[in-house]
């Protein structure tokens, strides 16, 4: 399909197709009822694909029905047939996020002229445009630029620049800030008309902290809303009829805050933007997940009154914004719209997953070789474990999957501190469970059986290509670091049975367990910090009986904490980890350190030391939801009174913890 035309299906073409014996496809009402001077434009969105082309979970090494651009592609074909005119746009986070991404980045590499597999699949589907997400920067700028060079569609990003000017419009941006798609739309009478669709892209400015090692000194970022306010008027001056904002940023607060990460609501208020595609949060919009959000209609799918959509993650949904356009002189304006997100699967009341579509073979074929090579890559054995490594109970008890990460980090940093001014300081290690259910669903857990440990298992233990860091902090900062982590839990009333334990707004990757100290968490106390690290109750203290080698931790004592670049540079907003306490920056990824540790030891014994627990609260119980396969590992949980308590929502299993 030439990019000078929209995917078009006229009424005559539609009727001819049905007369020829093809399946009857109902046109969208906007296409069916458009008047002579009206046209229906359908905007399709993918977002947060994270290299998921095949419907395959490389971490568990098995096919799945809940992910994969090859499955989403089937919906794309149907939706193109339902509308007279359509655009297919990706909203970022496509280069990193599963072992295929790591295989390409670390094993195969990207040379000039190479085609990245996810780009190859997107080319097959004739994407019209894309923007960058924060994870595009994880492998460095050279890898990013070589990867997007193979795209047969424009990739835009307005708020990342190689050189800042006096204003955003004077910046030298890393990629083009926006693109104008000159297209032809078919109106209700079957007549063709020109239309100019402007597409502009944004990424959270927090990438400067999250990928500081790649970006510092090479690029700079600007506030999303301020950048839009500068560029959108320029797009209108350049003759755009319609402006679509590709916002790789979630739907957050309505109040505008400089540098905000989830800026969709104030961004949608920028004059001149007609529709907004969102992502980053791995959620679906419109949906009940956003009920009660200021400036948001979670049923109609509007953000600050503009049509918006968020298409889940890994290809789980296809986002749809349908615009009914009316020709006003020589330009177009939006007169009506609808928004929805169509899934590729459904989950029944019995937890069973039913696929709603089949994979599109041409998409699978475009990455088949890379898929096969990725399978070889993930199946390499690097050592053995004497016990299973699982994360089903990582949020409620000391856990083997987190323990092995902490042990490997400590092992590495202890060697790195030798001969430095920090040698001799106690070394602690901070690690969080990355796969702990939540928005990833009831199967989103680490589950490595005893026996051989392969690369796929290490990738399962540590999802992200973070690099090792060490920070030097005080005992007081260690305590506040743990207070920040303890915000995962709801405040629990003593003596009350079956209270919900977990705050669903708190991501598991911010639940750091610090190994090397012992402590208890007093759930009767309010959280000192909010889900994003904001101060809530400055005098609160959930962390009690904090000791190091059997002695109370001195607030003025100093420690080295092994962690990763994301956390050490301010990711998660943890006390003691704001970028100014870093004393060591290693070139190795935390994942590679785990592999090297297992290779050196040959056989590991990931037994937990129960260094943290909940403080006792007699007569009190809480409810905790985890994966159904957790029941087989109840005997592995140490220092916790836990029992099955029936089914949880959305396919999870529920357990009761007696405090």
Descriptive report:
The protein has 659 residues and is of the alpha/beta class. Helix content is 23%, strand content 29%. The chain is built from 16 helices and 40 strands. Strands 10, 11, 13, 14, 15, 16, 17 and 18 form an 8-stranded mixed sheet that branches. Strand 21 (345-347) and strand 22 (353-355) form a beta hairpin. Helix 5 runs antiparallel to helix 11 (361-378) and helix 12 crosses helix 16 (590-601). It is globular. The N and C termini lie far apart (63 Å). Residues 1-5 and 8-24 have low confidence and may be disordered.
Cα-based radius of gyration, to the nearest Å: 26 Å
The helix tally amounts to 16
Number of domains: 2
- CATH homologous superfamily caption of the largest domain: Metallo-dependent phosphatases
Question: What structural keywords apply?
Answer:
659 residues, Purple Acid Phosphatase, chain A, domain 2, 5'-nucleotidase,  domain 2, 2 domains, eight-stranded mixed sheet, disordered N terminus
Q: What layout of secondary structure does this protein have?
A:
Elements: E1 7-8, H1 11-19, H2 29-33, E2 38-46, E3 56-57, E4 62-63, H3 69-82, E5 85-90, H4 99-108, H5 117-124, E6 129-131, H6 141-148, E7 155-156, E8 160-163, E9 172-173, E10 178-186, E11 192-202, H7 207-210, H8 212-215, E12 220-221, H9 224-237, E13 242-247, H10 264-268, E14 275-278, E15 284-285, E16 296-297, E17 302-303, E18 306-311, E19 317-328, E20 331-343, E21 345-347, E22 353-355, H11 361-378, E23 381-385, E24 389-390, H12 400-416, E25 427-431, E26 447-448, E27 451-454, H13 455-461, E28 467-474, H14 475-485, E29 499-500, E30 513-515, E31 518-521, E32 543-548, E33 551-552, E34 558-564, H15 565-568, E35 582-589, H16 590-601, E36 603-604, E37 612-614, E38 621-626, E39 641-647, E40 653-658
Parallel strand pairs: 2-5, 5-6, 6-7, 11-13, 13-14, 14-18, 23-36, 25-34, 29-38, 31-37
Antiparallel strand pairs: 1-5, 2-19, 3-4, 8-9, 8-12, 10-11, 15-18, 16-17, 17-18, 19-20, 21-22, 23-27, 24-26, 25-30, 28-34, 28-35, 31-32, 32-33, 38-40, 39-40
Helix pairs in contact: 4-11, 5-11, 12-16
Family: Belongs to the 5'-nucleotidase family.
Domain Calcineurin-like phosphoesterase: 41-282
Organism: Albidovulum marisflavi
């Amino acid at each position: 399909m030439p990019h000078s035309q929209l995917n078009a299906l006229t009424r005559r073409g539609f009727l001819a197709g049905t007369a020829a014996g093809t399946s009857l496809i109902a046109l969208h009402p906007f296409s069916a009822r458009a008047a002579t001077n009206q046209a229906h434009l359908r905007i399709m969105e993918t977002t947060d694909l994270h290299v998921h082309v095949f419907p395959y979970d490389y971490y568990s090494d098995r096919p799945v029905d809940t992910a994969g651009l090859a499955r989403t592609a089937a919906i794309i074909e149907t939706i193109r047939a339902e509308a007279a005119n359509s655009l297919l746009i990706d909203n970022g986070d496509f280069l990193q996020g599963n072992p295929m991404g790591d295989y390409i980045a670390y094993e195969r590499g990207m040379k000039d002229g190479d085609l990245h597999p996810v780009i190859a699949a997107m080319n097959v589907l004739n994407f019209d445009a894309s923007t960058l997400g924060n994870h595009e920067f994880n492998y460095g700028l050279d890898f990013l630029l070589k990867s997007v060079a193979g795209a047969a569609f424009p990739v835009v990003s307005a708020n990342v620049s190689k050189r800042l000017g006096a204003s955003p419009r004077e910046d030298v941006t890393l990629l083009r800030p926006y693109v104008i798609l000159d297209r032809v739309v078919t109106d209700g009478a079957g007549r063709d008309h020109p239309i100019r669709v402007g597409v502009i892209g944004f990424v959270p400015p927090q990438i400067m902290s999250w990928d500081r090692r790649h970006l510092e000194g090479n690029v700079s970022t600007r506030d999303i809303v301020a950048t839009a306010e500068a560029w959108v008027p320029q797009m209108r001056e350049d003759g755009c009829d319609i402006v679509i904002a590709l916002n790789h940023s979630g739907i957050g607060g309505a109040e505008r805050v400089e540098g905000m990460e989830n800026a969709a609501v104030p961004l949608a208020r920028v004059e001149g933007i007609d529709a907004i595609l969102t992502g980053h949060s791995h959620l679906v919009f419109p949906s009940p997940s956003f009920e009660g959000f200021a400036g948001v209609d979670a049923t109609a799918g509007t953000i600050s009154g503009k049509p918006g959509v968020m298409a889940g993650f890994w290809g789980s949904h296809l986002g749809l914004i349908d615009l009914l356009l009316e020709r006003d002189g020589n330009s177009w304006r939006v007169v009506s719209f609808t928004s929805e997100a169509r899934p590729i699967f459904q989950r029944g009341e019995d937890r069973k997953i039913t696929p709603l579509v089949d994979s599109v073979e041409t998409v699978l074929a475009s990455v088949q070789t890379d898929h096969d090579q990725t399978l070889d890559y993930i199946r390499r054995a690097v050592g053995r474990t004497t016990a299973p490594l699982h994360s089903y109970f990582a949020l409620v008890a000391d856990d083997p999957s987190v323990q092995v990460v902490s042990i490997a980090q400590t092992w590495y940093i202890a060697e790195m501190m030798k001969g430095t001014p920090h040698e001799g300081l106690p070394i602690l290690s901070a690690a969080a469970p990355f796969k702990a259910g939540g928005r990833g669903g009831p199967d989103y857990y680490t589950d490595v059986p005893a026996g051989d440990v392969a690369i796929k298992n290490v990738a399962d233990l540590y999802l992200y290509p973070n690099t090792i860091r060490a920070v030097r902090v005080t005992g007081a900062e260690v305590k506040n670091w743990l207070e920040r982590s303890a915000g995962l839990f709801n405040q629990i009333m003593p003596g009350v049975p079956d209270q919900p334990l977990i705050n669903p707004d708190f991501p598991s990757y911010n639940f750091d367990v610090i190994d090397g100290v012992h402590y208890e968490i007093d759930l009767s106390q309010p959280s000192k910090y909010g889900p994003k690290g904001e101060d809530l109750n400055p005098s609160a203290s959930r962390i009690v009986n904090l000791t190091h080698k059997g002695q109370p931790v001195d607030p003025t004592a100093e420690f080295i904490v092994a962690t990763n670049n994301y956390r050490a540079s301010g990711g998660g907003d943890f006390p003691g980890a704001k970028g100014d306490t870093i004393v060591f920056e290693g070139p190795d990824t935390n994942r590679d350190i785990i592999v090297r540790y297992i290779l050196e030891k040959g056989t590991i014994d990931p037994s937990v030391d129960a260094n943290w627990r909940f403080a006792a609260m007699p007569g009190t119980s809480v409810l905790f939801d985890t994966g159904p396969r957790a029941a087989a590992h109840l005997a592995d949980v140490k220092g916790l009174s836990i029992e099955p308590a029936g089914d949880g929502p959305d396919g999870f299993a529920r357990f009761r913890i007696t405090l």
